[in-house]
Design goal:
It is built from four helices and twelve strands; from the N terminus they run βββββββββαβαβαβα. The protein is α+β, with helices and mostly antiparallel strands and 230 residues long. Helix 2 runs parallel beside helix 3.
Length: 230
């Protein structure tokens, strides 16, 4: 096992017993990754990305965990618990993590008494990370989402069209257009007046999901400017 450990770079390698390997998400690629490639893990708003097993094609999700079907037919999972950007390189059945700092916190899930089914090790992994939040029932319905709504009237036109064409819809989403200057938690009440938005949702009996991009607006932001200066 190769090992490099420094303040700003970690590298650790392991030999894979089989090429049947899945995960290292979020991926826009084929399911089985065992044939090899370089897979970047770091949250990035790159929704139209098509992967080709080369670095830099990371998407929204960050899941440094993989599921493996071993030669015995049993399953196991490995989680590198980290929040740092990384490349995962798979070559000749050797998996190498290349991480920009942090610690090496590897967790192994072996399936207990019944590792012959992937569900067993996945349940162990879910238990370890604390499980998943139970979603509300309406979240499993029909959703409409797009980038580019200029104002509440455009959203209402979409809802009216769904209704006039007798199309099923439970939820409408807004991208970052509804924000004022793209600042999190601040609504552009000139183009998306709360009273108009509320009346629209009540009229059409729909749910609304405003997305939140986890970032800090840099336009004359004193906290951002101070951090750059320091």
């Amino acid at each position: 096992m190769d090992l490099i450990f420094s303040e700003y770079y970690l590298q650790v390698s392991t030999k894979l017993p089989t090429a049947n390997l899945f995960g290292i998400g979020e991926r826009n690629y084929k399911l089985d990754l065992g044939t090899g490639g370089t897979f970047t893990i770091f949250n990035k708003d790159q929704g139209f990305n098509l992967e080709d097993a080369t670095a830099g094609h990371n998407l929204y999700g960050y899941h440094p965990v993989y599921l493996q079907r071993e030669n015995s037919g049993k399953f196991s999972m490995v989680l590198l618990r980290s929040s740092n950007a990384m490349d995962v390189v798979i070559e000749n059945q050797v998996l190498t993590y290349k991480v920009i700092g942090g610690v090496i916190d590897l967790n192994f899930f072996l399936g207990g008494d019944d590792p012959a089914f992937p569900e067993t090790v996945v349940k162990q992994y879910h238990t370890y990370v604390g499980g998943w939040i139970m979603h509300p029932f309406w979240a499993f319905g029909h959703h409409q989402s797009q980038y580019g709504f200029k104002n509440a009237q455009e959203m209402e036109t979409v809802l009216a069209n769904y209704q006039s064409h007798d199309l099923i819809l439970d939820v409408i989403w807004s991208d970052i257009d509804y924000m004022k200057d793209y600042v999190d938690f601040i609504i552009d009440d000139a183009n998306f007046p709360p009273s108009q938005m509320n009346n629209m949702l009540q009229t059409y009996q729909k749910r609304w999901v405003p997305i939140v991009d986890a970032g800090i607006a840099i336009n004359n932001n004193p906290y951002f400017n101070k951090s750059i200066e320091e």
